[in-house]
Amino acid sequence: MNWDQVEGKWTELKGKARASWGELTDDDLDQIDGKREQLVGKLQQKYGLAREEADKQADEWAKDLDKET
C-alpha cells in the first residue's frame, strides 16, 4: 500500500499500527494521522531507532498491508 492510501485509510489502519508498535499511544496515532514522516519520527522517539531503521519499518509495514487485504 502506498502512503497516499495509508493516509486516506488511517482511521481504519490505526489498530494495525498499534498492533505493530504497541508503545504508540492513541494520541501518537492521532498526531501521526497517516503521515509517513510523522510515523518515522514517533518510531525514532518511542523506540530509539535510527532514522534508517524507522524508515525501513514504516515502509515494510505499509507494504505488508497489501498482503492482508
Structural features, described:
The chain has 69 residues and is mainly α. The chain has one domain (3-68): Protein Yjbj, Chain: A. It has five helices and no strands. The protein is globular. The chain starts with a helix and ends with a helix. The model has no long low-confidence stretch (mean pLDDT 95).
Give a nutshell description of this structure.
This is CsbD family protein. The protein has 69 residues and is mostly helical.
| CATH level 4 superfamily | YjbJ
Class inferred from helices and paired strands: mainly alpha
Count of alpha/pi helices: 5
* Major sheet summary line: none
CATH topology: Protein Yjbj, Chain: A
Count of separate structural domains: 1
| CATH architecture descriptor | Orthogonal Bundle
Q: Give the number of DSSP strands.
A: 0
Low-confidence stretches are none
Radius of gyration: 11 Å
Biased composition (Basic and acidic residues): 49-69
InterPro entries: CsbD, UPF0337_stress_rsp, YjbJ, YjbJ_sf
Family: Belongs to the UPF0337 (CsbD) family.
Organism: Vreelandella zhuhanensis
